[in-house]
Amino acid sequence: MTVPPEPATWRSWDRSRRCRIVAAARHEITANADALIDACRTAQRIDPVETLTGELFPLCAALKFIGQRGPRLLRSRKLGVGGRPVWLWGVRSEVHREPLGDVLILAAWNYPLLLPGVQLAQALAAGNQVWLKPAPGCEPATQLLVEAFWRAGVPAEAIGLMPADPQSAIDRIDSGVDLVVLTGGSATGRNVLNRCAAKLTPAIMELSGCDALVVGPGADLDLIARAVAFGLKFNGGATCIGPRRILVAADQQAALVERLRAQLEPLPAQVVHPAARAAAASMITDALRRGATAIVGDPAGTPAATELVSLRPTVLTGVAADWPIASADLFAPLASVLRADTDPERIALINRCPYRLAVSLFGDAAWASRLAERLDVGHVSINDLIFPTSDPRVPFGGCGDSGFGVTRGAEGLLAMTRPKVIARHRGRLYNHLRARRESDQTTLLSFLKLTHGHRWWTR
Fold first, then answer.
1. Domains and CATH numbers, the chain
2. Which end of the chain is more exposed for a tag (fewer CB within 10 A), N or C?
């Protein structure tokens, strides 16, 4: 295991130099793209184009963003005289962005390059030393990723590449780190937070989703059907912001189902990751027992959880909002159709769901914009899904059981720092240090009314 050095090494480098080196890793990633694609090839990821479009392109764009915007975002901010309270006469303050120290990144299996790669890059650019634990089975891809940063000029000692077993994460948290960044399920998030609590260690939790796709007025049903098929088959359906609940009005449902059937019929079965098989089988069995029906295929014969190896992209109709499948974080090619005729119904179904990571709204742009303002989620896509989150400029994170804190974008970079204020007092005016006078209360009360009174005559 590589042991990070004392914080004074990498963090002492000029921020522009750090950002430039981190951004240069994209050149190394591009040069070794074939090897990275091969390392990401699994039973769920059989199409190399998915690694290119879902991981390498957005990762390299995020690295370029750090190189272009990172130095400016991380620079100290001087607070001028404008806006300074008058009683702070002579005080000039600066806000510095300081590295947190040791950052532990706990990576997920479904996107082994993009998710930990951006988090690693942002933590390094901010001047931190990083401990990176890959998900089991992702060790080769993670090794290649880290080597790309080393070849770009990041000191080998700045990245501690850990074993993939969970015990190594537990040991690292117990030994003390300054931030934990987890991408994973909500159950894992609770366990990690319990561990962090003992050390008062802050954390960023990028957890599961049960995302809704809302069919609104004026929606293009053909576009929606294509989008659902894409969301269910991309990465074997193992995407936290994939469509899991399709909210549609009664007068649109029949037409949408026909279009979904046309899109889903040609799709082959996809291998379900072992970590997701039990939940998928359980939810399908429960929904069918309650009266749901499948648009295509025959999931009525879904095998036991231990035997569910593959599944055709499946959409179940007739699902009620209070069924377990309607609020489950599934990483399989599986979605449910729920009836929602009005905006209040749609808002309630979304905002009351424990998972609130992202939502996709399809329909009239003005309607979608109004509805988006009322949704308590981390990301809203209008007339699209999944794809817009790859913008390197935007933060990513959810709320509720989908976690808290953000990675990516300017906000994600600053989340890898802590603000430190340096205030300088110039001059000889120190009214707060002089002896108290009898007139102080009257004078200060008058001054308070003068500066903050509600009415001019009060002032």
1. 10-207+406-418 (3.40.605.10), 211-392 (3.40.309.10)
2. N
Pairing of strands 102-106, 129-133: parallel
The predicted model gives 122-147 an average pLDDT of: 97
Q: Which two tokens stand for residue 97?
A: 């962005």
> Measured between alpha carbons, how far is 318 from 248 in angstroms, rounded to an integer?
11
Determine the pLDDT at residue 5: 44
CB atoms within 10 A of CB 165: 11
Q: What are phi and psi of 70, to 5 degrees?
A: -55, -50
Q: Are 160 and 51 in contact (CB under 8 A)?
A: no
Q: Which region holds residue 127: left if phi is over 0, alpha if psi is between -120 and 50, else beta? A: left
Instruction: Look up residue 396 and give its two tokens.
Output: 């990513």
- Give the CA distances from residue 239 to residues 1, 18, 112, 207, 302, in Å, rounded to whole numbers and listed in that order: 30, 31, 12, 11, 22
Residues recorded for the chain: 459
Per-residue pLDDT tens over the stretch 269-308: 999 999 899 999 999 999 999 999 999 876 766 665 556 8
> Which two tokens mark 9?
């090494």
